[in-house]
Amino acid sequence: MFWSSGKDSAAALQAAQAELDIEALVTTVNRPEGHVAVHRVPESLLDRQAASMNLPLEKVVIPSPCPNEEYESLVLNALRPYRDRGIDTVVFGDINLADIRAYREALLRRAGMRCLFPLWRRDTAGLAADQLASGIRAVVTCVDNKVLSESYAGRELDQSFFDSLPEWVDPCGENGEFHTFVYDAAIFAAPVPWRLIRTLDDGAFSYGIIAEQSEEPADDQ
Known about the structure:
By secondary structure, the protein is an alpha/beta fold.
């Protein structure tokens, strides 16, 4: 499972488990920053997610910024040992971006693997409602300032969040409008404890800076 730490990954994983045995989570992590790429989730919380799902976690460490050629090489190097073990399918949480799907499929072919998209072409408003109904609980960790204000960073994804979204924003953030951290779901043995430290606006994006309840974030988080 190509795990982003967010809600769509959780929904895709829940759906995929109906037909596949998931062997591991694979997540790209920025270092030295120490957080999940794009979602800006601290590694400690990523580790807690994997532990709650009782799944091995494969971290693909990438620099920030990361040239695409280097990104592809690092991802393929991480996946090939799984293919050598006979694992030929990688699950993704993408919903309707055809160019992203085509890119992933082309990349995975180089590793001799195929992609599975359990959420593909789902209506995103219905999918968001289904995620809430299924018990997926998440917090917004990253917001694109071009489409949403900083006030959305750090908010929980409850019904009031979705009711407040402007009509031009996809309810699942499929166009990169926002990214999330899942702290509870049916696939978790127990919720992952977290707390919001502060919000941060860097001009292009606003972040909900989160941490484990017992830790302080690093200065650059």
